[in-house]
Amino acid sequence: MRFGAAVLRGYDRPFAVEEVMLDAVPADGEVLVRIAGCGMCRTDLAVRRSAGRSPLPAVLGHEGSGVVVQTGGPDTGLDRGDHVVLSFDSCGRCRSCRGAAPAYCDSFAALNLFGGRKENAARFTDAAGGELAPRWFGQSSFAEYAMVPARNAVRVDPSLPVALLGPLGCGFLTGAGAVFHSFGTGPGESIVVLGAGAVGLAAVMAATAAGAMAVAVDQHPERLALAEQLGAVALPADTADLPARIRRLTGGGAPYALDTTASARLINEALRALRPTGHLGLVARLHTPLPLEVGALDQGRRISHICEGDAVPGLLIPRLIGLWQAGRFPFDRLIRTYPLADINEAERDCDAGRVVKPVLVP
Questions:
Q1: Shortest CA distance to 30 belongs to which of 89, 70, 85?
Q2: Among 67, 95, 247, 308, which one is most buried in terms of CB atoms within 10 A?
Q3: What is the largest CA-CA distance in the chain?
Q4: Dist. CA 52–CA 156, nearest whole Å
Q5: pLDDT tens across 279-295, in order?
Q6: Domain ranges in the chain?
Q7: Is the peptide bond before 236 cis (omega within 30 degrees of 0)?
Q8: How far apart are CA 51 and CA 109, in angstroms?
Q9: What's CA 344's distance to the chain center, in Å?
């Protein structure tokens, strides 16, 4: 099977839309999906910073959505014509997977970031027969088609605009899941969100939907304005004595904070803005050591890393769609669509902060 895909051949090279080849017969437990849209996530772009770890050449993309065109085996739970949102891969067998924590799968890094299912590697090649890296996050959905494990695919109502739903599988899932699952934020509580990008604004929307107060911190005025429109109190990142300002807004300190920036300064300021026993969640990957101020974790304050919003995609994605349909999670306001052929323009706009969530349409 031949189709178009955006191939990254070097860590410092642009994407190239090329013809690729894929064995079109799904194995047991797999489905072939015609991609209708795929969100561009910071994790896709972070491959450039992790040179040598994620194998290239590769087709990236892990916020895909589309229509099932073929199924493998009788037990996929999906049928041809089903509309699906694709999410991350997991083994389905380890203790974490069996405990409804697939984001902490023992094989998460191998399956999603650093090699995928190696037995399938030779099935995905470029037009000249050169091998492409195994499926990125079980998908490689910067493409017209993707072969995915059926457990990565969440069936959705076919009346929905499926091309826009892909970011619910990762970025929006992560921010909303942190609020709903990692923190269990409830009515009358408050949360500080550091960084008003796709993950941060998803957290803002989820907090508002939960009846909580969100304080959004960012350096971009247009992002702060959007956060306010979505229900947050917006503060510039350079606000004088930011922790004290947040403590005043939240009645003595917020119980929760979510960092999407990996900024050591903002992380320490968020810790000082927490009330005793407060919880700071980190979703951005740290690339340097994190020096904590003396006393940062006094009075029961704690830090944890949050992966994929501690979510079970098959449960949270339908919940987010229901909130969107009720007007309480307007994620579509964060999206700008681009033809797949314009993937490099989408990356530039994403890097420059001109767009919150690019969605590539094959």
A1: 70
A2: 308
A3: 63
A4: 37
A5: 999 998 887 889 999 99
A6: 2-169+330-361, 173-308
A7: no
A8: 15
A9: 19
What is the Cα–Cα distance from 340 to 360, expressed in whole angstroms?
5
Q: Cα(81)–Cα(39) distance, rounded to whole angstroms? A: 21
308, 320 contact by CB (below 8 A): no
* 13 DSSP 8-state letter: S
Lookup: tokens for 181: 């699952």
What pTM, to 2 d.p., does this model score?
0.95
pLDDT above 70 (res 74): yes
The token pair at 100 is 């409804």
Distance, CA of 119 to CA of 97 (rounded, Å): 21
β strands within 165-319, DSSP E: 190-194, 213-218, 233-236, 254-259, 274-282, 302-305
The answer to whether domain 173-308 has CATH 3.40.50.720 is: yes
Tell me: pLDDT of 121 over 90.
no
User: Is it the case that residue 120 has pLDDT exceeding 90?
Assistant: no
Which of these, 84, 77, 104, 60, lies nearest to 317 by C-alpha position? 84
Buried b (16+ CB within 10 A) or exposed e, 10-26: eeeeebebbebbbeeeb
Q: 3-state DSSP call for residue 47?
A: helix
Neighbours of 234 (CB within 10 A): 21
CATH number of 2-169+330-361: 3.90.180.10
What separation, in Å, do the N-terminal and C-terminal C-alpha atoms of the chain show? 16
